[in-house]
């Protein structure tokens, strides 16, 4: 159902925010966002992927509006982004959530989306931009590792950080174990940011994953023009 305004009514529910999710892989953060969006009555305007992946298959099977904008079908990054622009124009999301989307977006694309794009990255930025973050943290003997949610810019993992959560690296951690421990936190933190954007306020009570967790509450919040993000540590 094409909707042009940011307030829509579907199935008797009022939706006050629409989001798009971009993925490239298994989509576990997408799943966490979908569950949170359903509870909060945030509308999923589009789920798109830049290559065939299990996350997109699952989303399509569940009946979401999906699009495969396969990068191999395009001659250039510019052409690929133009195709992505077209489906996003139709979907008209208020915010775009990157959830394991494995491609850098150009400054022009980000500007066309009014800078309303956020990403989840598995490190305590600015440490460990890029890939293999868990192994690099272990190799460095880092005391803490974590996850950052940040505004997207054309630089890799470089935009303003919205919120971070960390955990203590354990002696027994392998990259796989650490990734798994961190993923449990990612699945809480990304939905929390969704709620924050939706309501302008969120309270986090951090007990569910039972790990020794450290919240980094940022007082220097990013310049987000349509919502105040307020993440409150309660545990
Ligand atoms: C997550 O670790 C996320 O932080 C990073 O890529 C991974 C995606 O996992 N950007 P999934 O596809 O959400 O399961």
Report on the structure:
This protein is of the alpha/beta class. The protein folds into 2 domains: 14-114, Formyl transferase, N-terminal domain (Rossmann fold); 122-149 and 158-235, Rossmann fold (3-Layer(aba) Sandwich), CATH 3.40.50.170. Helix content is 31%, strand content 24%. It has 6 helices and 12 strands. The protein has helices at residues 28-40, 54-61, 77-91, 107-112, 133-139, 175-199; strands at residues 8-10, 13-15, 18-23, 43-49, 66-68, 95-98, 117-121, 144-151, 161-168, 202-204, 213-216, 231-233. The termini are far apart. Residues 1-12 and 202-235 have low confidence and may be disordered. It binds 5-O-phosphono-beta-D-ribofuranosylamine. 5-O-phosphono-beta-D-ribofuranosylamine binds at residues 23, 25-29, 55, 99-100, 120-122, 183, 186.
List the keywords.
2 domains; Rossmann fold; 8-stranded mixed β-sheet; 235 residues; binds 5-O-phosphono-beta-D-ribofuranosylamine; globular; alpha/beta; disordered C terminus
Could you give the topology of this structure?
Blueprint lengths: L7 E3 L2 E3 L2 E6 L4 H13 L2 E7 L4 H8 L4 E3 L8 H15 L3 E4 L8 H6 L4 E5 L11 H7 L4 E8 L9 E8 L6 H25 L2 E3 L8 E4 L14 E3 L2
Parallel strand pairs: 3-4, 3-6, 4-5, 6-7, 10-12
Antiparallel strand pairs: 1-2, 7-8, 8-9, 9-11
Helix pairs in contact: 1-6, 5-6
Bound molecules: 5-O-phosphono-beta-D-ribofuranosylamine.
CATH superfamily of the largest domain: Formyl transferase, N-terminal domain
Average pLDDT: 81
CATH class of the largest domain: Alpha Beta
Q: Could you say what the CATH architecture of the largest domain is?
A: 3-Layer(aba) Sandwich
Count up the helices. 6
- Overall body shape: globular
CATH fold-level label of the largest domain: Rossmann fold
What is the share of helical residues? 25-40%
Main sheet: strands, sense, barrel: 8 strands, mixed
Bound molecules: 5-O-phosphono-beta-D-ribofuranosylamine
Q: Roughly what fraction of the amino acids lie in strands? A: 15-25%
Cα separation of the termini: 42 Å
Strand order across the largest sheet? 5-4-3-6-7-8-9-11
How many domains in all? 2
Number of strands: 12
Poorly predicted runs: 1-12, 202-235
């Amino acid at each position: 159902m094409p909707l042009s305004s940011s307030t829509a009514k579907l199935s008797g529910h009022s939706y006050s925010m629409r989001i798009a999710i971009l993925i490239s892989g298994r989509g576990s953060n997408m799943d966490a966002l979908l569950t949170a969006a359903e509870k909060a009555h945030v509308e999923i305007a589009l789920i798109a992927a830049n290559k065939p992946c299990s996350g997109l298959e699952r989303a399509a099977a569940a009946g979401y509006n999906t699009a495969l904008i396969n990068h191999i079908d395009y001659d250039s990054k510019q052409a690929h982004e133009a195709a992505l622009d077209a489906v996003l124009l139709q979907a008209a999301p208020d915010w775009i959530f990157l959830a394991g989307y494995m491609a850098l977006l150009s400054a022009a694309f980000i500007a066309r989306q009014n800078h309303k794009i956020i990403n989840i990255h598995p490190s305590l930025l600015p440490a460990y931009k890029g890939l293999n973050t868990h192994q690099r943290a272990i190799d460095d003997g880092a005391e803490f590792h974590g996850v950052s949610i940040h505004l997207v810019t054309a630089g890799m993992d470089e935009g303003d950080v919205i919120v971070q959560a960390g955990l203590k690296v354990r002696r027994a951690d392998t990259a796989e174990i650490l990734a798994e421990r961190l993923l449990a936190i990612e699945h809480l933190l990304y939905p929390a940011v969704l709620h924050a954007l939706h309501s302008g306020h969120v309270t986090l009570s951090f007990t569910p994953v039972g790990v020794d967790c450290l919240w980094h509450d940022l007082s220097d919040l990013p310049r987000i023009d349509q919502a105040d993000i307020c993440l409150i540590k309660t545990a």
